[in-house]
Amino acid sequence: MALAALMANAEDGVLTLRGRIEASAHQSYVEVPFQVPPGTGRITVEFDYTGREQRTRIDLGLIDPAGLRGWSGGNKRLFTVASDDATPSYRGGPLPPGQWKLLLGVPNIRAGQVSDYTARIHLAPAAAPEALPDALQTNLADRPGWYRGDLHLHSGHSDASCASQSGTRVPCPLFLTLQAAAARGLDFVAVTEHNTLSHLQDLRALQPYFDRLLLVPGVEITTFQGHANVFGIQGALDFRVGGTTDWSRLLRETQRRALPVSVNHPALPSDERCMGCGWQPREGTDWSRVAAVEAINGADAGTPVSGIPFWQARLDEGYRLTAIGGSDNHDAALRTTQFGKSRIGSPTTVVFARSLSQDALLDGIRSGRVYIDVEGSGAVMEMTAAQGGRSVRMGAGLAVPAGGEVGLELRVEGVVDARVEWIVDGRVEQTADLPVSGKAPAWAWRSDGHRHWLRADVRSPDGRLLLVGNPVYVNFPAPAGAR
Ligand SMILES: [Zn+2]
Ligand SMILES: [Zn+2]
């Protein structure tokens, strides 16, 4: 037995296994058992060992109660397996409780050498599938800033198609979708397939390659009573509204799991033109459990099915909901093909986040410091509202007594001949021309002490909507912790 010592201790769902490989283990296999309790939904292994400078090599694999689960040899020191995804080299799927084993292969250890290894094994409960250990979190830029992305994309994991090598229509590989998003210069995408999580495995495999494009796992819960994107999801959600669940149950579940929900293309029809596309839950909607509304879907800005009036009506009702956009792209081709037209990045949603990581991005969406670049042109907007020495940005609240004056300022870049519209409670109250990039003329708005929301849009000279700003909330109740 090459294993001189084996220590296991569990704290906060982390088992630490330590052991020693001796020279007698040269070119043999060592099994290191550990117990997986019932209800485990993800196993993540971090592995390291000493003696590399003496050319010791330890390879790694995993054995579940039914047999070999995967083998990564010497190519990975970190891997994860869960019901819906796994690091390449390993297989996703159910995690049966019982005795599992790390399989250590020892291709080389010199005579007289020893190697001490440490395996940290994170066991996460299936009931909290989004609880990923830090080691699995991707952070592509550790600085606060505006990050640009597309929050609504499909691939061949649902109904996106593109041209095959020979020009026939085939389910489109996710890689092509992500490549198109990267070519567009985006910082992040949410991949939101219809009612399936089969893309999580691909996202796990592709994130290391896309080291400038944050891949956020999403799902478009697609029902007969409306569609909604759920961002950051890592485990199944029952989508069978009208069958085994309803929207109020779904929204309670997403809230329990702290998953932000965006209601998609709410103003689409919900009849034979597009079954279930409009937002029509039978029992109504508890909007306090919703984070965002897809105010712009693809090219729908300015059309009768634009989501903007629907979104603004919810603001009028007193809900703080972030307007976001999504291309809803179904064809990864970079240009129009006989099967469709790629719209990846049109619109682009621009989010102020403390870093380019999933948690920061989703917090940024919840915070409402977000604008929509309708045509994905790269234009920039920043709004501030100041009152009594206090200045806030889009998404924030401001208490203003009757008679109090709010100074509104807007900076716009990347747009020439812009027209700024100041919008109060859905009505355009003031416009200003902005011939070149820079600060729009400030506007002072006087409060009557009641609840209002103030925001700005930017249009082209011919009236095309270019930028959609989120509101500053005046005299709104504090946002629910739910968001
Ligand atoms: Zn949809
Ligand atoms: Zn969609």
Structural class: mainly beta
Give the cofactors and ligands: zinc ion
What name does the CATH topology of the largest domain carry? TIM Barrel
Q: Biggest sheet, in brief?
A: 15 strands, mixed
CATH class of the largest domain: Alpha Beta
Mean pLDDT: 94
**Total helical segments:** 5
What are the segments in which pLDDT stays under 50 over at least 5 consecutive residues? Answer: 1-8
Distance between the termini: 54 Å
Query: Architecture of the largest domain in CATH?
Result: Alpha-Beta Barrel
Helix content: under 10%
- The count of domains is 3
Radius of gyration: 26 Å
CATH superfamily of the largest domain: Metal-dependent hydrolases
Would you count the extended β strands for me?
31
Overall description:
There is one protein chain. With about 475 residues, this protein is mainly beta. It has three domains: about 5-125, Jelly Rolls (Sandwich), CATH 2.60.120.380; about 140-380, TIM Barrel, CATH 3.20.20.140; about 380-483, Immunoglobulin-like (Sandwich). Helix content is about 10%, strand content about 40%. The protein has five helices and 31 strands. The chain has helices at about 175-185, 200-205, 245-255, 310-315, 360-365; strands spanning about 5-10, 15-20, 30-35, 40-50, 55-65, 65-75, 80, 100-110, 115-125, 145-155, 160-165, 170, 190-195, 215-225, 225-230, 260-265, 290-295, 320-325, 350-355, 370-375, 380-385, 390-395, 395-400, 405-415, 420-425, 425-435, 440, 445, 450-460, 465-470, 470-475. It has a 15-stranded mixed β-sheet that branches. The chain has a five-stranded antiparallel β-sheet with strand order 1-2-9-4-7, with no helix packed on it. Strands 21, 22, 24, 27 and 28 form a five-stranded antiparallel β-sheet that branches. The N and C termini lie far apart (about 55 Å). About 45% of the residues are buried. The chain binds zinc ion (2 copies).
